[in-house]
Amino acid sequence: MPPSVKAILKPTQRDIGSLLVRRVLPALAARLVGPFIFFDHMGPATYAPGTGVDVRPHPHIGLATVTYLFEGAMLHRDSIGSVQRITPGDVNWMTAGRGIVHSERTPDEERRHGQVMHGIQTWVALPLAHETDEPSFEHHGAATLPQTERNGVSLTVIAGSAFGLQAPTRTYSPTLYVAASFAPDGALALTPEHEERGVYLVDGDLSIDGEPLEPYHMAVLAPGETATLASRSGATVMLLGGAKLEGERFIEWNFVASSREKIAEAKAAWAAQAMGKVPGETEWIPLPERGARPPQG
User: Fold this and answer.
1) CATH code for 5-242?
2) Is the peptide bond before 295 cis (omega within 30 degrees of 0)?
3) What is the DSSP letter of 267?
């Protein structure tokens, strides 16, 4: 590995709600990258007419979920009454705080006609001061996100700040989250603007300081190092990271917290169905036995 790369994270495949995902975070070599504690690459998956994604209502605490699509559409519903369709280039940011319940399903139109589903879902752990905030939801359309181009690389700032731009998405600590589209022979110098940084290759080819990065892998960059990202034939890349969070974070099923006690309380509340209901939904995912089921999005 070049000096600019601290670790390479390999994906593991999981099946959630009829959707195959490649999960990169959390990993043994890096449990978090900045505030990002969970990273799922969804699809691409082709759904025939009459089929779709059905992630039933499930709970979260202590985090924000961030959904960003390349293809397809998804319908978000939650226990604070949000109903939001998300399409490619948009951002759904749901802050769980002290607790929220949500579902994610294929919209009716796409279910009738079929679609290709492809995107990224991440969890951002909340700093201690916001860990038990009231839950909230916000949506930002693709046209509202700042964009720039550098040396054959188109950059969209999804959340936080990068390359002199600031996204409208609310964040709770210094955050880097950028979608980068490399044209053939495009190159980008990624400076140490943020304390911790990760580079994930969605598709295409990418090298970091001359060393190739395999598709579906994430390179965790060394602090303080500038890394040159380059693509011969073109690539789709996600840049993520930010400031390291204070203290430890525990993760179990869909819960993230600074203490095991908070997770135990959330588990008890969900088992008692005391975390709220999603209007229009009658199903829900039961609390699994420890280790019996991977997290939902």
Assistant:
1) 2.60.120.10
2) no
3) H
d(CA 15, CA 235): 25
Domain boundaries, the chain: 5-242
Across 3-110, the runs of DSSP E, i.e. the strands, are 5-9, 12-16, 19-25, 36-47, 54-60, 63-71, 74-78, 83-86, 91-95, 100-105
Instruction: Give per-residue pLDDT as tens, 69-119.
Output: 999 999 999 999 999 999 999 999 999 999 999 999 999 999 999 999 999
Amino acid at 200: Y
Q: How far is CA 240 from the centre of its chain?
A: 9
3-state DSSP assignment of residue 213: strand
Reported as half-sphere exposure (CB side, CA atoms, 13 A), residue 252 has a value of 17
Tell me the pLDDT tens digit for each residue of 167-195: 999 999 999 999 999 999 999 999 999 99
pLDDT of residue 292: 45
| CA gap 191, 206 in Å, rounded | 17
Whole-prediction pTM value?
Answer: 0.94
Amino acid at 64: A
